[in-house]
Amino acid sequence: MDTSCESSGRPTHPAGFFADESDLSERFPGHDSIDFPVAVVLPAGGSGERMGLATPKQFCTVFNRPLISYTIQAFERISWIENIVVVVAKESLHLMMDIIHKFCHKKVKVLLGGSSRHRSIFNGLQAFGEMPDGKSLRKPKVVIIHDAVRPFVEEDFLLRITIAAKEQGASGAIRPLVSTVIATTSEGYIDHSLERAKYRASEMPQGFVYDIIYQAYQQCSESDFEFGTECLHLALQYCGTNAKLIEGPPALWKVTYKKDLFAAESVIKDFLSQACVITTVCAESAELAHRFQKSLGARSMQVDVISGSFGNNQPLVSKTWNFIHITANIACLAEISRTVKTLHEAGQALLYPAVLILVHFSVLPHSSLTERMGQLGAIRHLAMEAKHRNILLYAILLNHNENAEQWEETVESASEITTALVKDRNPALAGQLLVA
Amino acid sequence: MDTSCESSGRPTHPAGFFADESDLSERFPGHDSIDFPVAVVLPAGGSGERMGLATPKQFCTVFNRPLISYTIQAFERISWIENIVVVVAKESLHLMMDIIHKFCHKKVKVLLGGSSRHRSIFNGLQAFGEMPDGKSLRKPKVVIIHDAVRPFVEEDFLLRITIAAKEQGASGAIRPLVSTVIATTSEGYIDHSLERAKYRASEMPQGFVYDIIYQAYQQCSESDFEFGTECLHLALQYCGTNAKLIEGPPALWKVTYKKDLFAAESVIKDFLSQACVITTVCAESAELAHRFQKSLGARSMQVDVISGSFGNNQPLVSKTWNFIHITANIACLAEISRTVKTLHEAGQALLYPAVLILVHFSVLPHSSLTERMGQLGAIRHLAMEAKHRNILLYAILLNHNENAEQWEETVESASEITTALVKDRNPALAGQLLVA
After folding, report:
1. Residues of chain A neighbouring B183 (CB-CB closer than 8 A)
2. Per-residue confidence at A13, pLDDT binned at 50, 70, 90?
C-alpha cells in the first residue's frame, strides 16, 4: 500500500460501524454540552498469549491494518475527543509509530508502558501532566480508558460514558453474563454458583474525572499496580467514587481468541457493504444501473447511483468503499484509471481496501470474444497498479441478450458475482475478468 | 443441494475441528475403557433473542447447514456415543426432522421440549426410560448434556468429561473468566467486584451418571424448573453429588451473537484447508503438482499429491474437501465430470461444500485463446451441475512460460488464486475461468 499521507487527505469522519451517528445531537441532548476537554488512554502492552499467536492481538491485522488502528480510528473520528494516548511495550514502539504514520492518525501520542496494565495506564495518565520532555497534553476534564482490542466502540456509547463520568466522577460499561459463574474449591469442585441476575461482566470503556483517577493511581499500592484488574475499583477504594454502570451494546466485545479475530474481520467486511454505481449517460447503462441497484438491494447492499462521474457526490463517496462502473464502451479503461486516481487522492482506500468493479456489457450480441479478451491484459495491468493503492479492481462481462428472461438471469448472475467480490474483498482475484 | 442420502454414503468419522484424534487411545488410556453406554442430550429450544435474528441461533446456517447439524456431527462421529437426543420447540419440529434427513444423521432422536431449558433437558432424559410410544433408548451409564450452539467440541474433551462423570457422578467444563465480574447495586453502581482467580465460567458439556441427574430432576422444584440455570447445581442440591470441574479448550465457546456466527463460519472455513492435488501421468503435470504442493504449503494448506485418480486413496480423500486437478489436456472435462460423480457418490460434499479446481496449463506458448474460451461454456455448464451436488467447480488457466522466473510468478499467482477460492468457498464464482 502507498503509505504517503501527505499527498492524500482522507474522509474526516469515516462512518461508525453500527449506527448512523448523524443525528446524535437529537438523541442525546448532552451531545452539544461536551464543552470540556476529553481524552483517551489506550493501554496496548498486552502480549496476546491467550490468542495462541506470535503477534500480540492488538497488532494482528485485518485488511493489512492492525486492530489497534481500528480502535484509534473509532476515537479519532469523534470531534469532541482531543487526544488519544496509546501506551505500548518497548518492543512494539517502532511498530506503533509506523502504524500512526501509515494510517495517518493525527490525535495520537505514543508512550512506553510499565510492567503491568495498571502501570501502563498510570504512565498514560501522566502524559497530561508535566512530561520530562516538556511536551504535555492539555489536561482533560474526563479521561476515557479503553482496550486496544475492542475496536467497535460507538460514539453514542462513548457519549453516555463521558457524560456519566463528568456527573458521577466515574462510569463503566457492563454486559450481562453469558455463562454462569461459579466459585471453585482448590480441589476443582464447585464451591457455589452465583445468582446470574445479581452480577455483570465489567467491560470497557470506562470514564473518569481526570483528577479522580489520577489521585487514585497516586495512592495505590504496589500490589494494586501488580495484580489489580479494575480501574473502577481503584477509584472506589482511594477516592470513594462509585462508578455509574451503564449497559453497553454487544459491539463492545473484546478480541481475545483467534476466532474473535475472524469475527472482527467479518464484522468489518459486513460494514463495508454500501456501494455506489457509476453509469455513463447512455440509456442502456442507466437502465442496467437501476437493475443492479434493485438486485444488489435485495442482497442487503445499500446502493446509490451516480451518473457520469463523482462530481458533487463527495459526501456520498466518502461513506462508500465499493464502486461499480457500468459501461458498454470497451475503451473505458481510461475512465477507470481516472476513478482509481480520484479514489486514491481522496484517501478513500487508506483505511479499508476499496473495491472497484468494471461491469462491461455488450449490446452487440456477438462482438468478438477475442477482442474483449485482449483487454484482459490491460485490465490486469491496471488492477496491479490499483492494488498498490489498496484498490481492488475486478471486471464482469455481460452479454446482452434480447430474450428478456435470459437477460434477467444474466443481470442476476452479475449481481451475485458483485456481491461475492464485495463480500470476500479478496486481493488474490483482483484483475480477473468474470463472466456473468 | 441433493438431499438424497440413500444413494450416497459419507465418511464415517469426518475429522474433528482442531485435533488429530487418531492417537486418542495413546494419550488417554481410559479411551478403551469406555465399555459402558454413553448418550447425549442436546436442548435446542432456545429462541435466539440475543442474536437479534429472526431464526433461533441453532438453526442459523453456515454453508447452508444449520449450526445444530455441526453440533450433532461432533457427537455422531464418536464411536462410543450411542444416542443423541435433541429436544426442540414444537415450532421447530419439522425443520429439525428435515435437517436429520438432509444431512443423514443416524444416531438422533428428536423430542419436544418443555417451557424452560430444564424441562427440556428432563424431557430429553426421559427418552431413556419408558416412552409413551414404547420406543425407548437403551439407558446410558453416563449422559452428556451439551448446548446445540457449541459446535466445536472435541472427542478428547468429551472423553475426559465422560470418564470424570463415571468416576465422580458429575463433571463440567469450566473456562477462565474473560472479564471481571462485579456485583451491582439496584441503583446501577458497584457493590463489589469478584476476585477473578477464585471464579470460573461454567460452560458445556457437562456429564452425569444417568441415575443421578435423573433423580435430581425428579426431585427438583417448580422454581428450579423455571429459573435454574445449572444442571451441576441440581445434582449437588438433590443428590449431594459435587461435580468434577475440568478446564476446557477455547473451542468450547458458545454462538451467542451475530459476530459469533461470523466466527463459526471462519473457523469452519479454516478447518477445510487440506487439499488433494490430482495429476495426470505426464511429467509436466507432475512437476506442476509438486510446485503447487510447495507453494500452497507455504500458504498453510496441507496438500497431498495423487497421480491418476483417487484409486486407493479413499482414507486421504475422506479427510479432504478441496481437490485440484492439474492437466495440460483441454479435453479433460470428462475426467472432471467423473471426479464430480465420485465425490458425490462418496458423500464427500454432504457436510461441507467441496471445492474442485481445474488447473489447466498449456505447454504451447500461443495456443488459441478463443479455443480455450470456447471451453468456458462447457465448464460453466458442468459447474452448475456440480453446484447442485454441493461441489464448487472453478478453473484456472496458466500459460506455460519458457522464462523460468516468469513461470515461477505464474505458478505463484495460480497458487494465490487457489488459496483464495478455497478460503472464500464462494458459490457465486463457481464456473468462472480465472487467469493466473
Report:
1. 198-199
2. very low
